[in-house]
Amino acid sequence: MKTPRVLVVFNTLTPFPADKDYTAELKQPDWQTEADVARALTALEFPFEFAGLCDDLSVLQQKAAAFKPDIIFNLVERFNNNSVYETDFASHLNLLGVPFTGCDPAAMTLCKNKGLAKQLLAYHRVRVPQFVILPVKKPIHRPKRLDFPVFIKPLREEASLGISQASFVENDAQFRERVSFLHETLGQDVIAEEYIPGREIYVGILGNRRLEVFPPREMVFARVDDEDPKIATYKAKWDEAYRKKWGIKNKFADDLPEGLEEKIRTIAKRIYRKLLIRGYARLDMRLTPEGELVFIEANPNPMLAKDEDFALSAQKAGLDYPELIRRILQLAPAKED
User: Fold this and answer.
1) CB 7 within 8 A of CB 69
2) CA 191 to CA 272: how far, in whole Å?
3) Which residues lie below 8 Å from residue 120, measured CB to CB, with a gap of 6+?
4) What ranges in 124-233 are assigned the alpha helix state H?
5) Contact present, 74 and 50 (Cβ < 8 Å)
6) For a Cys-Cys bond, which of 210, 221, 260, 312 suits 230, CB 3.0-4.6 Å?
């Protein structure tokens, strides 16, 4: 692979011009992923520039015309502050004709719609929770096949946005209240699914056709009683004070029963391929007390900060952070690998 010219593209909350200098922003905690990727590209001695997008695609077009990148490093998760457009942005990158990192629009369409992903995988005999989709502006009805307790979340959001302790419901009044709340506050359809007790397992995968499955990690809840629900709420993921209070931390799942890690690798590869994922992804599963793996959701283009689960798993598998970034770039132009 020749030394590529890399254009790192990400989303911003407010508009910036194409020639914006992001030096000050990269020192802020909220910009950790962008800063880590920049440091890795510097270590690799790859020439790179940034393009920050809010609601104007011409910024990308101006930057691409001036810099002439060989690869676009796609870190865009939202456009016009709406995560629904993440797939549309990948389609736009396809039309530009410049190879880009991560998943293409087909995989994003399947993964971002949590109900569609579960329907497809259930057809291919992957265990998924019982679920129902509750569209906006439609009567709220729980089918009899969906027994309590039920877990309710937005159909298309990520990073646990819209998930709280109130997402765990045990009766029809709570069910209607939570669905109505998400409809009104987020303005999108809702998925209500069977609550699966057990361990919260995260599996990172890298590749297009030849896949590398990284050592699994998990979220543990040290100060939550065994009989209480253990769910990855928004606070459980992102609020450090809350995590400390309840003893929540992410660690490697290093005490799995014999043979289970190989089973995880096999199922993870199957899910990855059925959802048409390429580049890299993180799969979220539940490991039931009986030792059964249940698919929860797939995260194409997961968070890439150096201290996040995906990069930490890659490091344990022998890929330091710059090498991980190199591998992701290498997968961008190759439909087969």
Assistant:
1) yes
2) 21
3) 110, 274, 275
4) 172-186
5) no
6) 221
The torsion angles phi and psi of 26, rounded to 5 degrees, stand at -70, -10
Closest CA to 160 of 199, 114, 116, 198: 114
The C-alpha atoms of residue 128 and residue 286 are separated, in whole angstroms, by 10
Domains of the chain listed by start with CATH number: 6-100 (no CATH), 130-194 (3.30.1490), 197-331 (3.30.470.20)
Q: Which residues have CB under 8 Å from 266's CB, separation 6+?
A: none
> Cα 272 vs. chain centroid, distance in angstroms?
13
CB 326 within 8 A of CB 332: no
Q: Which residues of 100-132 are buried (b: 16+ CB within 10 A; e: fewer)?
A: bbbbbbbbbbbbbbbbbbbebbeeeebebbbbb
Q: Chunked in runs of 10, what are the mean pLDDT values of the chain (337 residues)?
A: 91 94 94 97 98 95 96 95 90 93 94 95 97 95 95 88 93 97 94 96 96 97 88 90 94 93 97 97 96 96 96 98 97 68
Q: Which amino acid is at 291?
A: G
CB contact at 8 A, 10 and 19: no
Beta-strand relationship, 190-194 and 131-134: antiparallel
The two tokens of residue 77 are 């998760």
Global pTM reads 0.94
State the DSSP code for 237: H
Which residue's structure tokens are 């993440």? 86
Q: Order of strands across the sheet with 71-75?
A: 48-53, 6-11, 71-75
Q: State the Cα–Cα distance between residues 257 and 294, nearest whole angstrom.
A: 16
184 vs 157: CA distance, rounded Å: 15
Query: Residue 255's closest CA among 287, 223, 294, 213?
Result: 287
Q: Please give the structure tokens belonging to residue 210.
A: 């030849």
Residue 226 pLDDT: 80
Using an 8 Å Cβ cutoff, are 120 and 110 in contact? yes
Write out the E strands in the chain: 6-11, 48-53, 71-75, 131-134, 150-154, 168-169, 190-194, 199-207, 211-213, 217-221, 248-252, 279-287, 293-300
Query: Which 3 state secondary structure label does DSSP give 207?
Result: strand
